[in-house]
Amino acid sequence: MNKELVILGIESSCDDTAAAILRGSKVLSNIIANQTIHGEYGGVVPELASRAHQKNIIPVIDKAIKTAKIKKKDIDLIAYTKGPGLLGSLLVGSSFAKSLSLALDVPLVSINHMKAHILSHFIDHEDQRKPEFPFLCLTVSGGHTQIVIVRNFDNMEIIGTTLDDAAGEAFDKSAKVLGLKYPGGPLIDKFAKMGDINAFTFGKPKIKDLNFSFSGLKTSIMNKINSSLMNDPEFINSNLNDLCASIQYSIVTILLDKIKQAINITKIKNIAIAGGVSANSYLRKELISLSTKENLNIYIPKFEFCTDNAAMIAISGKYKYLNNEIADYSESANARLSF
């Protein structure tokens, strides 16, 4: 019987320093160090993020190894995030991964962060089912919004993408206008549970094909709130739950309308979601409701695999290694790495 690979995954694309150990497809540890300092600025500050990664990366990897109850010498493969993301943050993870790979004399693989979100569905876990190929994946995060046809582990095609802002950014910027702390998406989700989705209406973009646009919606939300505050300084406090519910409804409706179009065009009935916004409870609920109406197979990742994490980097590393895609040490981190 062949020995299952022990894989170290390293993720440092934005403001979370993460390391995970997988044996085959099973998670032995999945450690994340969050950077709380960005909350003071209402968003991620790149320079502060890269400094925090430098401080956190050794303790995080050390904890991942100890939690997994393995030794460094047991590691068979190292996978790291090459991009896309913040260049300074990516450089910390990629440099450390290369150095450790050389020191341990083990292979190295470089990973596309957005593809890794999709492949997180293939982590062995009792709380999630693995999608059947082909499937459509709605990948939604702070920096990206995409619909992807996934034909195989190494055959993915973007058929819809945002033309401007991402859905996650629309959540966070709306939250900032409401006076909520960063990251605002989870707080909007929380308050929306107590609000009326029909309390307020906002301008809905009309975008052709399967592409997205959230800049117009974001402007409509800001204009509504700012104009209402001029007449009533307590407008936000008096309507917070309803505002959150209506904002969330508008964003999720745009996402679901496009995935419905994609289903009609491709005739694919296997639908997955991935990325940080896939943790949104209303998106999950509405997608499950859609699956019942349209007889779809829905795949929703476990919460810990939605946001940026290193387990998704490690599982992606497994499939790249099996496909003989070994990284060259001359490879550079790429903030704008294409899909």
Q: How is the biggest beta sheet arranged? A: 5 strands, mixed
Broad CATH class of the largest domain: Alpha Beta
Number of strands: 10
Global shape:
globular
CA-atom Rg in angstroms: 20 Å
| Number of helices, where a helix is a run of at least 4 consecutive DSSP H or I residues | 9
How does this model look, in words?
The chain is of the alpha/beta class. It has two domains: 133 residues, Nucleotidyltransferase, domain 5, CATH 3.30.420; 168 residues, 2-Layer Sandwich (Nucleotidyltransferase, domain 5), CATH 3.30.420.40. Helices cover 42% and strands 19% of the residues. It is built from nine helices and ten strands. The strands form two sheets. Strands 3-2-1-4-5 form a five-stranded mixed β-sheet, with helices on both faces. The protein has a five-stranded mixed β-sheet with strand order 8-7-6-9-10, with helices on both faces. Helix 4 runs antiparallel to helix 7 and helix 5 packs across helix 7. The model has no long low-confidence stretch (mean pLDDT 94).
Topology summary:
Layout: E1 6-11, E2 16-23, E3 26-34, H1 46-67, E4 77-83, H2 87-104, E5 108-112, H3 113-119, E6 135-140, E7 145-152, E8 155-161, H4 167-177, H5 185-192, H6 215-231, H7 235-266, E9 270-274, H8 281-294, E10 297-299, H9 311-322
Parallel strand pairs: 1-4, 4-5, 6-9, 9-10
Antiparallel strand pairs: 1-2, 2-3, 6-7, 7-8
Helix pairs in contact: 1-2, 3-9, 4-6, 4-7, 5-7, 6-7, 7-8
